[in-house]
Design brief:
The chain is α+β, with helices and mostly antiparallel strands and about 160 residues long. The protein has one domain: Nuclear Transport Factor 2, Chain: A (Roll), CATH 3.10.450.50. It has helices spanning about 1-35, 40-45, 65-75, 140-159, and strands spanning about 45-55, 60-65, 85-90, 100-105, 110-120, 125-135. Strands 2-1-6-5-4-3 form a six-stranded mixed β-sheet.
Length: about 160
């Protein structure tokens, strides 16, 4: 009996998880679209109040309030940033209250990778943690490493 209940729970939770993926996908698409349309309120309403945004620069580890202040001038200009999803993978925790994702994006910086954690709240799915990274082809890593060597050295000393 215990095995049957375990199997039944697994089947039902897997089905629920699969049903949530389109909802999560829609939230991430709306979030990117809100930035492209400079909809500041919608963009930040799709994030948790304590969300974190980690940008491409080593110094960018933004708590929600600081990220709002940083972003506001870009949104006020009528267009923040325009990230188009190339591919996305979504992984949901069994209880369907938390998920994580990774995505390849076409951006003004070329192809970037985004990854993060999305949390189910009373208002629906919201982004709790997002990391944006510039992708570097392996054959260019040495060249890029050389370009940022001085910046990295100064940041390491500062810490």
């Amino acid at each position: 009996m215990k095995n049957i209940l375990t199997i039944l729970f697994f089947v039902l939770s897997t089905g629920i998880s699969a049903q949530e993926k389109p909802n999560i996908d829609a939230v991430l698409n709306q979030w990117h679209q809100a930035a492209a349309q400079a909809d500041f309120e919608k963009y930040f309403n799709l994030m948790t109040k304590d969300a974190i945004f980690i940008g491409t620069d080593a110094t960018e580890n933004w708590q929600n309030n600081e990220f709002r202040k940083f972003s506001k001038p870009y949104f006020d200009q009528g267009k923040a940033w325009d990230f188009q999803t190339i591919e996305r993978n979504i992984y949901i925790v069994e209880n369907c209250k938390m998920a994580w994702f990774d995505e390849l994006l076409n951006t003004q910086m070329g192809i970037c990778r985004g990854s993060g954690v999305i949390q189910k709240t009373e208002e629906g799915w919201k982004i709790a943690h997002y990391v944006l990274s510039i992708t570097i082809p392996n054959e260019k890593v040495q060249e890029v490493t050389e370009l940022k060597k001085e910046f990295d050295r100064k940041l390491i000393i500062k810490q």
